[in-house]
Specification:
- By secondary structure, this protein is an alpha/beta fold.
- The protein has two domains: 105 residues, FAD/NAD(P)-binding domain; 64 residues, FAD/NAD(P)-binding domain (3-Layer(bba) Sandwich), CATH 3.50.50.60.
- The chain has six helices and seven strands; from the N terminus they run αβαβαβββββααα.
- α3 links the parallel β2 and β3.
- It is elongated and about 55 Å long.
- The N and C termini lie far apart (51 Å).
- The mean pLDDT is 90.
- The structure holds flavin-adenine dinucleotide.
- Flavin-adenine dinucleotide (FAD) binds next to α2 and α4.
Length: 214
């Protein structure tokens, strides 16, 4: 069973890769390893794939992956992952059925938490929330006023450009007039990273019609 970093360290390509979690990392790795030649299965617990996306986008991503041979299973509950000689056995429940999948590697892509436990932050007066994220105000100042927190450790949106923009907020607070805060950030654009659609994939015909109503 691997995290995304550990999977990239493997010296051999897993012939059968099972990915637990159909979120952004799961989808990105399914795309990469599918193109490398692994037989990839994504296990998503809810009925909807990429549940945070608009349905049209999620359907488009799923169709793209499936057209490249990725098996997407939704509405499945992982019961167990057992190591056996040189491989793993993943048991899932779908409705009333028990399904067993053999895999050469299993990627867990079910979400990331801030790595804050054991640092003794409480002793420094830095408060954490229930998920281990550092509690801050809109200047990213923690509950210890001389300590600021930026990036994933704050426990908000986990994107590279959020951590970059967090720097601007702290710079404004520490070196500037403090006028740039979380409140000024506004909407944050983001992407679902996949390989570009192949020419055979008819994006044009699948593009949802967008109507603007006033
Ligand atoms: C597989 C994957 C794909 C991603 N794809 C995208 C993407 O396409 N686009 C995007 O915007 N974002 C993506 N992200 C998210 C992005 O990587 C993070 O949001 C970003 O790296 C956060 O930056 P950071 O500086 O807060 O944390 P990190 O980049 O994680 O840096 C934290 C550093 O602190 C170190 N560290 C941790 N604990 C300790 C400790 N106790 N003591 C000392 N050092 C410590 C870590 O080793 C690490 O070097 C992806 C993340 C993953 C895992």
């Amino acid at each position: 069973m691997y995290t995304s970093e550990q999977l990239l360290d493997l010296k051999e390509l897993p012939e059968r890769l099972v990915i637990i979690g159909g979120g952004y990392i799961g989808v990105e790795f399914a795309s990469i390893y599918g193109d490398f030649g692994s037989r990839v299965t994504i296990l998503q617990d809810g009925q909807r794939f990429l549940p945070r996306e608009d349905e049209e986008i999620a359907d488009g991503v799923r169709a793209n992956l499936e057209s490249r041979g990725v098996n997407v299973m939704t509405g499945v509950a992982v019961q167990s992952v057992l190591s056996q000689e040189g491989s793993a056995l993943v048991t899932v429940k779908k409705g009333g059925d028990i399904i067993r999948l053999e895999a050469d590697a299993v990627l867990t892509a079910t979400g990331r938490r801030p790595n804050t436990s054991g640092l003794g932050l409480e002793s420094a007066g830095v408060e954490l929330n229930a998920r281990g994220g550092v509690v801050t105000n809109e200047h990213l100042q923690t509950t210890a006023p001389h300590i600021y927190a930026m990036g994933d450790v704050v426990g908000g949106l986990q994107f590279t450009y959020i951590s970059l923009d967090d720097f601007r907020i702290v710079r404004s607070a520490v070196l500037g007039d403090g006028s740039y805060t979380l409140k000024e950030r506004g909407a944050v654009p983001y992407s679902v990273f996949l390989n570009p659609p192949s020419p055979e994939w008819e994006w044009e015909s699948r593009r949802p019609e967008i109507r603007v109503t006033r």
